[in-house]
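Propose amino acids for all 308 sites.
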């Protein structure tokens, strides 16, 4: 959420608290959790007026012992909005590249997108995957721009960061895990792929190989699971931490609300200066974390395709 949106959220909580006659100030912890966690409502507040959109709640689907709830939530809405933005940006550019720029260099936004595509293809995908890398370029680019749009939507007024939900980052990491393992099976074959789990260093005597096999098999198996887990936690933690810090700092303004005009003014100026700097840093972090996720996906694919 943007600085503007956060201030309105806090002001709304303070007004509600005064309206009930409470003298303890706004519930900063409650507002912090309400902003960071997922929910079934979309909230907008402007010039003292607020609007709440209640998302539909559907009956859960019972599959034996499992219960599947497909009701849309706030993070799901912004996840789909990020996907829609990807389509609205890249489908027209793709059509223009095919129809208008067949015999000349593109210009404007199409030129910038082409430069990014070529950079990812040459410096990220080909450099890390090697032979046959071009087939993975669409996947890596899709991951980058999809995550980038989700990250940036959390910085707009009254937006929500879907990548601040570990279920979203976990699903993205699961997609990467499946692609990596399937790529390894195709590139190495069944016997070669099994050696990435059951590994015995060549050149040892049978007893030494058996001992190393017992030691290294669980290590290699856990290594396959820790890679997607690291992708999930890294993206989730970085996006969640920035918003937590910004909202916590803004809460300081309202904690000093009764300390006098001079104190409140000084605290407000200091806090807003720090928050503005952090929000600028958050834009950089949004690009960086999308790039790291895409790059590590290419690295993991390259590692298993060239397991030697």
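Proposal:
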């Amino acid at each position: 959420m943007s600085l503007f949106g956060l201030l309105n959220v806090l002001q709304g909580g303070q007004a509600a608290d005064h309206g009930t006659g409470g003298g303890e100030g706004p519930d900063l912890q409650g507002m912090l959790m309400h902003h960071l966690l997922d929910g079934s409502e979309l909230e907008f507040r402007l010039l003292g007026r607020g609007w709440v959109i209640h998302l539909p709640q559907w009956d859960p689907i019972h599959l034996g012992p499992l219960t599947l709830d497909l009701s849309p939530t706030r993070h799901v809405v912004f996840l789909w909005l990020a996907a829609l933005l990807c389509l609205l940006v890249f489908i027209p550019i793709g059509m223009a590249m095919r129809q208008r720029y067949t015999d000349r260099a593109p210009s404007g936004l199409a030129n910038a997108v082409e430069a990014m595509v070529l950079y990812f293809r040459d410096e990220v995908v080909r450099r890390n995957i090697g032979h046959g890398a071009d087939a993975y370029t669409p996947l890596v680019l899709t991951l980058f721009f999809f995550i980038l749009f989700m990250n940036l939507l959390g910085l707009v007024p009254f937006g929500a960061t879907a990548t601040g939900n570990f279920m979203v980052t976990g699903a993205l990491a699961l997609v990467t895990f499946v692609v990596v393992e399937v790529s390894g099976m195709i590139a190495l074959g069944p016997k070669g792929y099994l050696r990435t789990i059951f590994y015995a260093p060549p050149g040892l005597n049978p007893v030494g190989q058996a001992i190393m096999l017992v030691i290294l098999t669980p290590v290699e198996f856990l290594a396959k699971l820790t890679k997607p887990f690291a992708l999930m936690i890294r993206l989730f933690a970085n996006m969640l931490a920035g918003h937590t810090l910004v909202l916590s700092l803004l809460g300081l303004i309202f904690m000093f609300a009764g300390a006098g005009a001079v104190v409140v003014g000084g605290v407000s100026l200091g806090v807003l200066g720090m928050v503005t700097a952090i929000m600028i840093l958050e834009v950089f972090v949004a690009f960086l974390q999308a790039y790291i996720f895409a790059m590590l996906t290419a690295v993991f694919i390259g590692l298993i395709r060239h397991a030697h």
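The radius of gyration is 25 Å. The chain has eight helices and four strands.
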